[in-house]
Specification:
Elements: H1 7-63, H2 66-76, E1 82-89, E2 94-96, E3 108-116, E4 119-128, H3 131-181, H4 195-260, H5 267-294, E5 304-307, H6 308-318, H7 320-326, E6 329-332, E7 337-340, H8 342-358, E8 366-375, E9 382-390, H9 420-430, E10 435-440, E11 444-452, H10 462-472
Parallel strand pairs: 6-8
Antiparallel strand pairs: 1-2, 1-4, 3-4, 5-7, 8-9, 9-11, 10-11
Helix pairs in contact: 1-2, 1-3, 3-4, 4-5, 6-8, 8-9
């Protein structure tokens, strides 16, 4: 995450950048113009010196007096910036060229005719270096940079003064929001130096008022919901009690008829008696499952660290007879310790494993239970992904969603009521997880469900977490 700075620092930084850019642009323009001016000045000096030198050496060039020309030329040129000098006669022959001559490239070159008695007797070529230009440009640059530094300091200081009201207003807004988040200053309005900040504060106060009103409405709704739940529980209990009483009578009399009068009834009558008994028993199971489903939320326990292998061990004990009856090979990997409701998780594994046992037609039934830690693609948080895999009869894809609906059954077995997977989904979603399945008809089914990975410190005590962790560290691979 990028570093955050207060508004004064940001104002000063932006002003410094803008001012530096402006100073650099102006300094570049100034230096460019200074280079042109200095170039012209050097050319003028060279031209002036060349004319003066031509007048001095004109008599000697006219007489072709080389010795005197050399002596006079050596005495006449005293400017150290003259780096190239050459004296030519009228035929273009070089009469004088000092040994210090440099290459004319890069020099300011000028030439002047040598006149004697109105006649052109030769030519003087001068080349001057740019050292004088460089020194003047360096001085100009230093002056520009000094002026730029002064301007930068002035503008940065001014930005600090300008940003102070903004910073004070934002700081006041921060304290105002902080106080409102704690339930204070609900009846106060913020009065700052900026109208925009005051508008934000007013909108925030209006929002907090709406939130407070919504909170009170939610509290009223929760009270009404709890009252409705209590009434529904009482209603469900009364209905189930009233339904169970005639069912018990029907079951008792149908059993009396089946035991005492079966031999007096023909085959059709015996079949009718059996249908009555089976229907009564199924109705009792439906009522019991409906009661269990309606009270599922009330039976939940507080979230605490639970070893999942221990949960599977309890489920195995409850399903031991069914496992032995079908010779099921139940294989369980080492499962993690998860912060969850132990009662709810027992319901989940019991229903998934019992279904895997019930709907398996293979000579060697196999059920596998495992888990992997993964990253939720939506929340980007870690979660546990459990699976229960079997090699049973499988489920057609068109029924993948239907099987989680209450009282929906794909097979007309005598035991099932179609509420088990509904309970599984409710428990998993109550934990903040998801459930889905993969299946191929005739080859088996895999049920997947997720549970969020929560820190042990969020619930219980350290001792509870350590105890639960120890309970979940032993794999059931050797015992299940």
């Amino acid at each position: 995450m990028a570093a955050k700075y207060n508004i004064r620092v940001q104002y000063a930084a932006w002003v410094a950048v803008v001012t530096s850019g402006v100073v650099l642009a102006l300094a570049s323009l100034h230096i460019w113009r200074a280079i042109d001016d200095q170039e012209q000045a050097v050319r003028w000096v060279a031209q002036h010196q060349a004319k003066s030198f031509a007048r001095t050496v004109a008599p000697h060039v006219a007489r072709n007096d080389i010795n005197t020309l050399v002596r006079v030329a050596g005495q006449s040129v005293t400017d150290e910036e003259v780096l190239f000098l050459r004296v030519l006669n009228a035929k273009g022959e070089v009469l004088y060229r000092p040994p210090y001559n440099q290459s004319p490239s890069g020099l300011v070159m000028v030439s002047e005719p040598v006149m004697s008695g109105g006649n052109n007797v030769g030519q003087v070529e001068f080349g001057m270096g740019r050292g004088r230009v460089a020194r003047r440009l360096w001085n100009s640059l230093l002056m520009d940079m000094g002026l730029g530094a002064v301007l930068l300091g002035i503008f940065v200081a001014a930005s600090a003064l300008i940003s102070k009201p903004v910073q004070d207003s934002l700081q006041g807004l921060f304290h105002y929001v902080h106080a409102m988040s704690k339930g204070q200053r609900h009846d106060e309005y913020l009065d700052s130096d900026l109208a925009e900040v005051d508008n934000v504060a007013r909108e925030l106060k209006a929002l907090m008022d709406r939130v407070e009103e919504a909170r009170r409405g939610l509290e009223r709704a929760q009270v009404e919901l709890k009252a409705s739940e209590k009434e529904m529980d009482e209603y469900t209990y009364v209905i189930s009690h009233d339904l169970k009483e005639p069912l018990r009578g029907m079951e008792a009399f149908s059993k009396f008829l089946a035991d005492g009068y079966r031999d007096k009834l023909d085959e059709e009558g015996q079949r009718h008696i059996d249908i009555i008994r089976k229907s009564v028993l199924r109705m009792q199971r439906l009522i019991n499952d409906l009661l269990h489903f309606s009270r599922l939320s009330q039976q939940s326990q507080p979230m605490q660290p639970i070893g999942m292998n221990t949960v599977i061990l309890h489920v195995r004990v409850r399903l031991q007879h069914a496992l032995d009856a079908k010779l099921v090979d139940l294989r369980v990997e080492k499962l993690p310790t998860v912060v969850c409701d132990e009662t709810g998780m027992t319901e989940v594994f019991h229903n998934l494993i019992s279904n895997a046992i019930k709907y398996n037609d293979k000579p060697h039934p196999l059920i596998e239970v495992g888990c992997a830690e993964k990253l939720n693609p939506e929340t980007q948080r870690h979660e546990y992904e459990f699976f229960v895999r079997d090699n049973g009869i499988g489920i057609r894809e068109e029924y993948f969603d239907k099987i989680f609906q209450i009282f929906q059954r794909l097979h007309r077995d005598e035991e099932g009521t179609g509420i088990g997977l509904t309970i599984v989904r409710r428990v998993v979603e109550a934990h903040g997880g998801r459930i889905w399945l993969q299946s191929e008809e005739g080859k088996g089914t895999i049920f997947y469900f997720t549970l969020p990975k929560r820190e042990f410190s969020q619930t219980g005590t350290v001792l509870d977490a350590m105890s639960a962790s120890m309970k979940g560290t032993h794999s059931l691979a050797t015992t299940v």
